């Protein structure tokens, strides 16, 4: 990492400590939308641990340089350039004062200081601070910050920054000021300010040590009634982190601010978290059960960063998963504990299933494509492109494996040692690994490969039963199969894989487990095997009958398991496995196998048929009242079209869609009475409750409605959906009813009921931006038909008065939803979807490269599709490559085409 202009490729191997350090920063802002003046006074000194440099090189982008002074005297040897500011022949230790100007009103990138809805906001991660003032904008330069904000009191009555409020007051000419101090050293990416017309929901709570804390959720005035759930989630997060990890809130106050124009979900700036409104605002009329759950998870995630990311931060951006993977793990554990505590394994498994579904569908695909990279990347062109599923979700799985290896108590010991060693420091993934290893007396040198090897490992399993000796041998072999080039290039040897296994007898009960060499059975019916070699055999003794293995219980490692279960064995596991995750997994394997067979037939035009045994297996789950509604909803949900297409040797979205729709129709018609019975049984009359139990009932009921909409004669489903839409007292039921109406209408080229509901939905909620996002997304993801292709609907919606390409949420709701979540329509053979994609990537690149780059990734797996689709995707990629200017998008398309 150089202090100078960013090179074309940044490599982890080139890291060098900064030549200078900054100990204190005093920022003064005169906030004016078109011309904000920033005065930055820093205490700078040479870094004794770095190579000597005569010049101080500061980063800066889109800034107007005004002046520089050292120790109070004007400094003439300061030269501004496109990438920053060079100060020649500076002293060893000095006070540097810089004055510069930026234009927040014209900052459409939403990186740095920008204006949204007439208010000022910031987003500094990863490299936005250099758009605010000249600085050593890198995470290993940590300083304490004092911030003074000045602005028109009428236009910006609320002035916020990191830390604790020191003073505020009025100034001449209708202006006012506020001065904030953050007592904790932090890198510049954690800086934040907010100024505008906002109101707050406030709560005062006491920390575990008895100190009073002020909590605030700041929003625009008309959104105040949608803040209670975010506040409750924050309080729960604070309590959980105290209880689970002994970590208290360290500031006098903690603030959340919601903004509608935001590139990310939220940002963990110290004490002043800035959130996308999507992850703050919720009430029953405007937010779904999924929204409520996501708000709880994201509020938890950003609060947990206070320690895992802020108090201990990453040395360089290659270590991004140090904070993100760890904090995703923490928010997943928080959500699981909120749903089921530490002991309700069925409730916790529901959360686990949801997380693994996302990992498999998105991160496994990333591992197989041109953007494949290790959890700790070795190089990048644009760091914004590495806020990826691999860094976050696979990074979380790597952290989870520590807990699987050492248990909750051992993991807590490792966390305690990590904070004891590194509080207030910028460190590496290796520092975290060493703390976990040392706290538990374990050599984890081999475990480092999880950070440095790309790709999804595959574990093939062979079993052998010796009835005479009552021995059952399990042979595990690990490798990467036909992995992406990045995976092949980074492989260094076998991984340490914690592989959880159980053995199930013919009566469906778990068998006792005793490994060869042990004097007695362990007492647990799940055993975590330390799988450390390329091939390794584990032999269980005193196995009285030939068992059926339950493999990788609770998804104990982020790997693909290859074992040739028969359809009957999968049905048996679906009915009997005591591990809730593997019970779900058996059903998904069964469905995936059948669907891929059907997709193959659809490709060649062979008539489709579904075996009665598959219908029977689904019927058993649907009617099994001993299973929780939330689990049944997940178990009855077919694998997504995107996931299925990725499992094909040559992806054919049309064939996958035909197969999946055939199965849904078959299940709908064969189990019609059962779906109707479930729909009636799981209604939730009365006032809306955002509890896991109530959410589970609604989820199962609405899944039943979605299947009923597939009936050959959907009149009954249309009646039920119309009645549900009209009577709904919550957004979960209303949006599910609208979705069912749209899908029931798809085969008929539209319907009066669906159009009436769409029109009514818009009229009801046209002043609720987040709900209108749902309105756009529902239309972009509807099934469509030959008579009514969705691309035509999307193009018309692009011209709708409510659509605004500059707003990331709105762009995601329509464009991303169509391109990423409607594969059968997006991948039309005429290439219309690809032409649309190219136009939108180019348009977004000109205003917001970060958002454009996310959209650009929709075609990165183009080589895996059928020849006709490949040709269309390649042409679209080449068009984009020839026209875009940002490093963000160029890196994506050039890697895809390489």
UniProtKB/TrEMBL annotation:
<keyword id="KW-0378">Hydrolase</keyword>
<keyword id="KW-0031">Aminopeptidase</keyword>
<dbReference type="InterPro" id="IPR037144">
    <property type="entry name" value="Peptidase_M1_pepN_C_sf"/>
</dbReference>
<dbReference type="InterPro" id="IPR014782">
    <property type="entry name" value="Peptidase_M1_dom"/>
</dbReference>
<dbReference type="Pfam" id="PF11940">
    <property type="entry name" value="DUF3458"/>
</dbReference>
<feature type="domain" description="Peptidase M1 membrane alanine aminopeptidase">
    <location>
        <begin position="230"/>
        <end position="450"/>
    </location>
</feature>
<dbReference type="Pfam" id="PF17900">
    <property type="entry name" value="Peptidase_M1_N"/>
</dbReference>
<keyword id="KW-0862">Zinc</keyword>
<dbReference type="InterPro" id="IPR024601">
    <property type="entry name" value="Peptidase_M1_pepN_C"/>
</dbReference>
<dbReference type="InterPro" id="IPR001930">
    <property type="entry name" value="Peptidase_M1"/>
</dbReference>
<dbReference type="InterPro" id="IPR012779">
    <property type="entry name" value="Peptidase_M1_pepN"/>
</dbReference>
<feature type="domain" description="Peptidase M1 alanyl aminopeptidase C-terminal">
    <location>
        <begin position="568"/>
        <end position="898"/>
    </location>
</feature>
<dbReference type="Pfam" id="PF17432">
    <property type="entry name" value="DUF3458_C"/>
</dbReference>
<feature type="domain" description="Peptidase M1 alanyl aminopeptidase Ig-like fold">
    <location>
        <begin position="455"/>
        <end position="564"/>
    </location>
</feature>
<keyword id="KW-0645">Protease</keyword>
<dbReference type="InterPro" id="IPR042097">
    <property type="entry name" value="Aminopeptidase_N-like_N_sf"/>
</dbReference>
<keyword id="KW-0479">Metal-binding</keyword>
<dbReference type="Pfam" id="PF01433">
    <property type="entry name" value="Peptidase_M1"/>
</dbReference>
<dbReference type="InterPro" id="IPR045357">
    <property type="entry name" value="Aminopeptidase_N-like_N"/>
</dbReference>
<protein>
    <recommendedName>
        <fullName>Aminopeptidase N</fullName>
        <ecNumber>3.4.11.2</ecNumber>
    </recommendedName>
</protein>
<keyword id="KW-0482">Metalloprotease</keyword>
<dbReference type="InterPro" id="IPR038438">
    <property type="entry name" value="PepN_Ig-like_sf"/>
</dbReference>
<dbReference type="GO" id="GO:0004177">
    <property type="term" value="F:aminopeptidase activity"/>
</dbReference>
<feature type="domain" description="Aminopeptidase N-like N-terminal">
    <location>
        <begin position="86"/>
        <end position="190"/>
    </location>
</feature>
<dbReference type="InterPro" id="IPR035414">
    <property type="entry name" value="Peptidase_M1_pepN_Ig-like"/>
</dbReference>
<comment type="similarity">
    <text>Belongs to the peptidase M1 family.</text>
</comment>
<dbReference type="InterPro" id="IPR027268">
    <property type="entry name" value="Peptidase_M4/M1_CTD_sf"/>
</dbReference>
